[in-house]
Amino acid sequence: MSALTDRFGRVHDYLRISVTDRCNLRCLYCMPEEGVEFAPSSDLLSYDDIVEVVSVAASLGITKLRITGGEPLVRPGLDGLVKRLAAIDGIRDIALTTNGVLLAGQAEALRAAGVNRVNISLDTLDPARFKFIARRGDLNRVMEGIEAAARVGFAPIKLNCVLLKGVNEDEIAAFLQMAKEQPLHVRFIEYMPIGHADDNWRNHYLPLSRVLEIAEEQQLGIGRKEGIIGNGPSDDYTIVGGAGSFGLIHPVSDNFCQRCNRLRLTADGGLKPCLYWVDELNVKSSLHNREALRGLFMRAMDIKPLNHEMAAKLSNEAQSHEPTARRMSQIGG
């Protein structure tokens, strides 16, 4: 059994690495529009630090990496980091999550460096609504990024759509049609209360059963799909006669904690066993000491809880642990 096996028998082979908490958008479900305090550059893990941590993680059984942010493409020289990570013995797959705004100009270099797959955030197909949700930026640049991802050979290309009641739920049908017409994997994601379990979250939360209802209303022939690379917690579906597919990621209405295989490394050095809870182990004091770093990963296995309690938070039930106060952009999506 892998060294990174927690108390509940879950084997961990996946590390999500945030390289920055900064972002060129301000998506309303992720971070406030103003007043965001970013970590000073001096507090962030250097690329040398990240390579060191991943080298130890790989020796313990980590084989898959995902580069996240904030928006990872705002940090200079990312392709150089990817090239170094891809060269680490044991690392077999590197993926990237991005909002796509800067992807067109970096896709080729990232593909050459060793990124295999990309997830691109796309919460709307309407330019005006994009401005409302993201509070800045240009939908056209995201679409150019998707085109560039296809051109350089990323596969599969996944589009992450966070559904918000009263904001973009009326576009579910359009996204399903997009998945039918294009060789893309559209993933609908429930709005999570990471760092802000407030009335705004409760008012905009939408369970993903609505997606299947609309697929039925459209009379789309759908069936369960297996084998999508890196599908993780997504329940995936085919569309009869479709070029693409779609998936549902429902951490609130139907959590998938029993299948969790991941750890997170924040940009400022926090090793998080669970996205939702406050627990973090800071790797900085253990850098340049492989045994100490190994110990932190083993400790993460010891303290990882059985599950999160987002659904309980939705109904204002008591929590068994302390939820994180960090926003998604500060942890790594």
Flag low-confidence runs: none
What is the gyration radius calculated from CA atoms?
19 Å
Tally of helical segments: 11
- Total beta-strand segments: 12
The CATH superfamily bears the name: Aldolase class I
The level 1 CATH classification is Alpha Beta
Task: Give the gist of this structure.
This protein has 333 residues and is an alpha/beta fold. The protein is built from eleven helices and twelve strands. It is globular and about 55 Å long.
Structure description:
The protein has about 325 residues and is an alpha/beta fold. A twelve-stranded mixed sheet has the order 7-8-9-6-5-4-3-2-1-10-11-12, with helices on one face. α2 packs parallel to α3. The radius of gyration is 19 Å and the shape is globular. The chain has a single domain (about 15-330), classed as TIM Barrel (Alpha-Beta Barrel), CATH 3.20.20. It contains eleven helices and twelve strands.
